[in-house]
Design a protein that fits this description.
The protein is of the alpha+beta class. It has a single domain, classed as Amidase signature (AS) domain (Amidase signature (AS) enzymes, Alpha-Beta Complex), CATH 3.90.1300. About 35% of the residues lie in helices and about 15% in strands. The strands form four sheets. It has an eleven-stranded mixed sheet, with helices on both faces. It has a two-stranded antiparallel sheet with strand order 4-5. A hairpin with a 2-residue loop joins strand 14 (about 395) and strand 15. Helix 3 packs antiparallel against helix 4 (about 50-60), helix 11 (about 305-325) packs across helix 12 and helix 11 crosses helix 13. The longest helix is centred in the C-terminal third of the chain and has 22 residues, at about 350-370. The N and C termini lie close together (about 10 Å).
């Protein structure tokens, strides 16, 4: 029988820890035992701190007279693209250093400052590239709902760790859907926050373009809001960070709504989508009326979105090509080298055209949100696919031009610069799917409120995969 401390949501655990009904040591031990029990089957947390050190941190928290923060006593594993002091950051690649990081990055530091106990690192594709979690360092992460299926990515390890009840909270990053895609594939929640909500402190080209973000994952919308309260807030190293008070995310979320949701489906043919994820997402969107809102069907072309995404992403890989010694490029997977070649071929004219398109797309987004409060569409174009397939080469009978083609349901939303969240949308033949909700730039709290109301009308977080 599953330990109740492992089955509980993060908000439930945080409340009980705050009232000292349970101890951090109790919570941490239960989750470490769960990891020992099931992670061998899924490989979500390949890097772990020593059990004794983890429990010592938990005991220190229990000795405090007041909670350390909103995440007091909760275990978390950090995505292996983020530095954690004392642990190596492989980024899933053989070309990175195996030396332990000397200092933690912003996300890891804020998680710890909020009272979370870092137990290890979650698996990711090589350099977070692609939405299927495998790499030559830590191997393949499997979907807990079907071990023969992909866990998605690039925050695949985080999503699996949540779904399998190995951790109650997690972090991730998102350029082309890396918080949203694995959430949909694993029946959990992933929020791509507004640009600037979680500060960026690493001056790389693609991050300066402000499309790459870091954000929270959880099993419920409330859990995600709880983690966001710890991650959000300004940092003097990021002049474009949003300055809103992050404590607003700790306020209770509603179970009803009066918002208008616009169903945009395949975004006027912007991407192909298999029948099952589209039907599940549409049925999940229909729940808005049960929650007190209104659902309308609307056209929503996003002109230039794919081109914007590809060029901005290409700039990031241009930088990656410069950062990695040329004599080691051969160690990288083919798709990374292809992206590097694309980025290196970009011209000034390509970049200027991308910026022109961004201005027009922003105007389109403003017009869309003059009509509705939130947009809805499927998170993914396919259900979890076989693990031995690198990526889907065909969707809904259409051949994909490359490995980004099957991810466009997230990529085109990234280009809008809007916050987006994936919430569970149900199952088809035992495989999960997600509903993607998109809010106005900066309106993260409002987006969470709408997602919470829809989640309350049709919850899925109580379902647990059999491992």
């Amino acid at each position: 029988m599953l330990d109740p401390l492992v089955a509980a949501t993060a908000t439930e655990l945080a409340d009980r820890l705050r009232r000292r009904e349970i101890s951090s040591v109790d919570v941490i031990e239960a989750h470490l035992d769960r990891i020992d029990e099931v992670d061998g089957a899924v490989n979500a947390i390949p890097v772990r701190r020593a059990r004794e050190a983890i429990l010592a941190d938990a005991a220190q928290l229990d000795a405090l007279s007041q909670p350390a923060g909103p995440l007091h006593g909760l275990p978390v594993a950090v995505k292996d693209l983020e530095d954690v002091a004392g642990l190596p950051t492989s980024s899933g690649s053989t070309v990175t250093s195996t030396r332990p990081a000397r200092a933690s990055g912003l996300v890891a530091s804020r998680l710890q400052a909020a009272g979370a106990v870092i137990i290890g690192k979650t698996n990711t594709p090589e350099f977070g590239t692609g939405s299927h979690t495998f790499n030559p360092v830590h191997g393949l992460t499997r979907n807990p709902w079907d071990l023969g299926r992909s866990a998605g990515g690039s925050s695949g390890g985080a999503a699996v760790a949540l779904a399998a009840r190995m951790v109650p909270i997690a972090d991730g990053s998102d350029l082309g859907g890396s918080l949203r895609n694995p959430a949909a594939f694993n029946n959990v929640v992933g929020l791509r926050p507004s640009i600037g909500r979680v500060p960026l402190t690493e001056p790389t080209t693609h991050r300066l373009a402000r499309l790459s973000v870091q954000g929270p994952m959880g099993r419920t919308v409330g859990d995600v809001a709880l983690v966001l309260s710890a991650l959000a807030g300004p940092d003097r190293r990021d002049p474009l960070a949003l300055t809103d008070d992050p404590s607003s995310f700790t306020s209770p979320l509603p179970t009803t709504m009066s918002a208008t949701v616009g169903w945009i489906g395949d975004v006027d043919g912007a991407f192909a989508c298999d029948d099952a994820p589209m039907a599940l997402a549409r049925a999940a969107a229909d729940v808005v009326t049960d929650a007190g809102g209104e659902l309308i069907q609307m056209g929503a072309a996003l002109p230039g979105a794919e081109q914007i995404f590809r060029v901005v992403r290409g700039l990031g890989f241009r930088q990656l090509a410069a950062d990695i010694p040329a004599d080691r490029h051969h160690e990288l997977k083919d798709t990374i080298r292809e992206n590097m070649a694309y980025g290196l071929a970009l011209t000034v004219d390509d970049i200027m055209e991308m910026e022109r398109l961004r201005v027009g797309l922003r105007e389109t987004v403003v017009e869309l949100f003059d009509r509705v409060d939130v947009l809805a569409l499927p998170t993914t174009q396919v259900l979890p696919f076989p693990v031995d397939q690198e990526f889907p080469t065909e969707v809904a009978g259409q051949a994909m031009p490359d490995y980004l083609g099957w991810m466009m349901s997230c990529c085109v939303i990234t280009a809008t610069e809007c916050p987006a969240i994936s919430i569970p949308a149900g199952f088809h033949d035992g495989l999960p799917a997600g509903l993607q909700l998109v809010g106005r730039p900066g309106a993260d709290r409002e987006l969470l409120e709408m997602a919470a109301a829809m989640e309350a009308a049709r919850p899925y977080h109580h379902l647990i995969p059999e491992l």
